[in-house]
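Why do we care about 3D structure at all? Because function follows from shape, and shape follows, mostly, from sequence. That is the central idea of this module. The next example makes it concrete: a single protein chain, its amino acid sequence, and then its structure expressed as tokens.
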Amino acid sequence: MTSERLDKVLAGLGAGSRREIAALARAGKITVNGDICRTPDRKINPEQDKLSVDGQPLVYRAHWYLMLNKPAGVVTATEDNFQRTVLDLLPEQLRRAGIFPVGRLDKDTEGLLLLTTDGAFGHALMSPRRHVSKVYEARFDGTLAPDAAARFAAGLTLADGTVCRPATLEPLGGDRARITLCEGKFHQVKRMLRAVGGTVTALRREQIGTLPLDPALAPGAFRELREDERAALTVDREHAQNTKNGISQK
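And the structure:
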């Protein structure tokens, strides 16, 4: 790995802003391989050099990849002047590292949300050209049209002229249904169900590609993705890109 500036590496690990890191260095609170370092622009090898800030060792990672069980009532944004965001559910270290949500869920929608510091990873999963599937479970009022599933499969055209790609609708009995999409238009699940007779009362995302939400995660809880989970998402997005209708992999 090529050398990088110490302050850049520490900022990426959430140790503070570059200005804060410079102040820590001047105060003698940063060590590199056990030696105090007072020069924040020093070049280091982050994969080999051992770093600590204020006595706390830091483990280098190029990027963060998290799975969050988003609760209702928080917005999918990095900042908001008036409402709690998904980043408010994370510790300060992760917020400082520049983590951001991959795509979005509506404020009242729950379930699987990925967060990362890796822009290429996030773009590849959310790009409309990739057609990575997303699976939702919805509760709704009303009665769905008898041909609702067939209309989803054919690709709905909404009242405002929005054309939706083919999707799957699986009734689960009563007021529940599972919906699989390969795109993410504004309020898409709600609008598609409304088009076939239902009004969504609760919505939860259960899966992205082949990655399901960890059932052990309580609302508001998160964990890092395992290496095999990240690898599976890479396979998902590559496969989805080569699938013309975006549905056959589900």
